[in-house]
Design brief:
The chain has 576 residues and is an alpha+beta fold. It has helices at residues 2-64, 71-84, 162-169, 197-202, 210-218, 256-259, 261-307, 322-380, 385-413, 425-435, 437-443, 462-478, 510-513, 531-541, 569-575; strands spanning 88-94, 100-103, 118-119, 124-126, 130-131, 137-147, 150-160, 178-182, 188-191, 224-229, 235-243, 248-255, 421-424, 446-450, 457-460, 485-493, 496-503, 545-551, 555-563. Strands 1, 2, 3, 4, 5, 6 and 7 form a 7-stranded antiparallel sheet that branches. A 5-stranded antiparallel sheet has the order 9-8-12-11-10. A 5-stranded mixed sheet has the order 14-16-17-19-18, with helices on one face. A hairpin with a 3-residue loop joins strand 18 (545-551) and strand 19 (555-563).
Length: 576
């Protein structure tokens, strides 16, 4: 149900994502276009404002050129021009040598022809923007005059650009968007934000500002837009339009949060609506799907319980559909599995008891029969001293055999404790090999010991390890045909001692190797199958490991590994 709900809601999610992306992209382009139009209009107004003042000064220069006016008349024209056009603070006329001819003020004029600035033509130059003593922007316009094709001096006028500031101050984009004007060298000329006007008075340079850097890097006229963080860390949207006549740039800055406020609000609404629709759909799918999911969960819990061995687990499904039938089939299967398990356990117990009985009969029948026969004979030949000695040896041997069988059974239920002492592996193995040579010779088997060249010491129990060696060598001799060989070797491998018993017998099938150390498992036709199980327990009690490798028809190798003892060899020898 959840998958179906997801499939149903997926188109809505895709549509919502596409809608949000399209909305934000369209809003961004719309806002950028609107702000660019504002910047262009401001640039055009500033251009017209400066061009008008330059045209006025050109008109005044026309009244002064080639008119043969007296000095007082020229002086009167300049004063009238300043009175008629308040943008001009001062106008001065200079001759070709740079001497002052006339001025709109009394006395010598302070304005001089600009040496650098923006050219309005071959004879007109506009100086860079400056700030006067009243912290208002000014610029100087110089016009070279000519008379009969020869230089006749120049007309210089100082223009107040305070009106340009007013135009920039009137520009508002939203509540927090402002316009600013930057000169070609990056100097801040005007700023619409009253809090930023001190920067104009200080002559701050914005050459490193991201948008200014982008405009200058384009190397050509044209508008530009960019999103960036201002000096306060506020994300801003800035657009720029060139004022080509002056080489200035008009910028409009607006906080990104305000510029995209409408788009952000619509985006949030879309997200809320999509999220609500998704929540409602999933909730409905969840509540209606519980009746479908719960039976599956019940069957899963029942299956896991049965797999974990809890065969009494049953499932309860109250519906009347196919799940009810499946639940009933599961319960019937569990009931049948309980019956089969009990039957298997009974058969396993019977098989185990059968193996134990057969092994006990095999292992005990010979000693008991030998004891019985010896008892019958002793009655007849009691007076024979030699037979009495034979009788005593026979009884002692068979009693020892019976004790070993009983000890094996006892060790299966409760392993005998072992004591650890430093012992020389070579010596302990050599003693067992020598004691079993007679048995090997009777079986026609060659016992071949291969000892390490140096003494190897381990922490072990000499009697418990003797039983381990005896079990492994006995098994190897019994598994090897006459003429074969059993090799017992000891090797030191770094911090471990390796003891191996290898025969050239018939080998053990690979499918039986995994269970060879289990209780009551044997590869012989007779016996309890406890020797290797007890051997493994003793080895592990002494902190070692035992492994087996075998190949049918070639032989078997049992390998034991024990950690090397940390005590000195002399102590080990003394303990031995």
């Amino acid at each position: 149900m959840l998958l179906l709900a997801a499939a149903g809601i997926l188109p809505l999610l895709v549509y919502g994502a596409v809608s949000i992306f399209s909305l934000r992209d369209a809003t961004r382009r719309s806002v950028i276009t609107g702000n660019e139009n504002v910047a262009r209009r401001v640039a055009e107004q500033i251009r017209l404002y400066v061009q008008t003042n330059v045209d006025i000064l050109q008109s005044v220069s026309g009244n002064l050129s080639d008119t043969n006016l007296a000095q007082w008349q020229q002086d009167r024209i300049l004063k009238n021009a300043v009175l008629d056009f308040p943008e001009f603070r001062e106008i001065a006329l200079y001759d070709a040598a740079g001497g002052q001819i006339a001025s709109s003020r009394i006395g010598l004029s302070k304005v001089q022809f600009p040496q650098t600035g923006t050219s309005f033509g071959p004879n007109i130059t506009l100086s860079p923007i400056g700030i006067d003593d009243d912290f208002l922007p000014t610029a100087v316009v110089g016009i070279k005059l000519s008379q009969l094709g020869q230089s006749a001096g120049s007309l210089v006028g100082e223009i107040s650009l305070e009106e340009m500031w007013r135009m920039v101050d009137q520009i508002r984009v939203g509540d927090q968007g402002y316009a600013l004007v930057v000169a070609a060298n990056g100097q801040l000329i005007a700023h619409g934000n009253s809090n930023e006007k001190p920067r104009v008075a200080r002559g701050d340079n914005l050459a490193t500002q991201p948008l200014v850097r982008l405009v200058h890097g384009q190397g050509k006229a044209g508008s530009a837009s960019l999103e960036y963080a201002d000096e306060a860390g506020v994300q801003m949207l800035g657009v720029a339009a060139p004022l080509e006549l002056l080489g200035w740039t008009v910028m409009v800055e607006q906080p990104r949060s305000e510029a995209y406020a409408v788009a952000d609000a619509l985006t949030r609404q879309l997200i809320y609506i999509i999220g609500l629709a998704l929540l409602v759909t999933v909730s409905v799918g969840y509540f209606f799907g519980r009746s479908f999911i719960q039976p599956i969960f019940a069957l899963m819990r029942g299956t896991h319980a049965v797999a974990a061995g809890r065969l009494d687990e049953r499932v309860t499904i109250n519906s009347r559909d196919e799940f009810k039938q499946l639940g009933d089939a599961f319960n019937s299967m569990a009931d049948k599995l309980v019956e089969l398990t009990e039957d298997v356990r009974k058969k396993e117990r019977q098989a185990m008891f059968g193996r134990m009985a057969a092994g006990l009969v095999h292992d005990l029948s010979h000693p008991v029969q030998n004891i019985g026969n010896s008892c019958k004979l002793i009655v007849r030949v009691y007076d024979d001293p030699e037979y009495r000695q034979t009788f005593t040896r026979t009884i002692d041997r068979e009693i020892d055999t019976l004790k070993r069988v009983l000890d094996d059974l006892r060790n299966v239920a409760r392993p005998a404790p072992v004591e650890r002492f430093p012992l020389d592996v070579n010596r302990s193995v050599s003693d067992i090999v020598e004691s079993m040579r007679g048995f090997a010779d009777e079986s026609g088997i060659a016992l071949e010991p291969k000892f390490a060249s140096e003494p190897v010491i381990i922490e072990g129990d000499v009697f418990a390890l003797g039983r381990v060696y005896r079990n492994l060598i006995t098994n190897a001799i019994q598994a090897t045909q006459a003429g074969g060989r059993v090799t017992i070797s000891t090797v030191r491998d770094r911090d471990q001692v390796q003891i191996s018993v290898t025969d050239t017998g018939s080998g053990i099938p690979s499918e039986r190797l995994g269970a060879i150390f289990d209780d009551f498992v044997t590869t012989k036709k007779r016996g309890l199958g406890l020797g290797l199980a007890i051997t493994k327990r003793i080895v592990e009690q002494l902190g070692g490991t035992i492994t087996v490798a075998s190949e049918v028809g070639k032989g078997t190798t049992f390998t034991m590994r024990f950690p090397v003892a940390q005590r000195p060899v002399a102590v080990a020898a003394a303990a031995g």
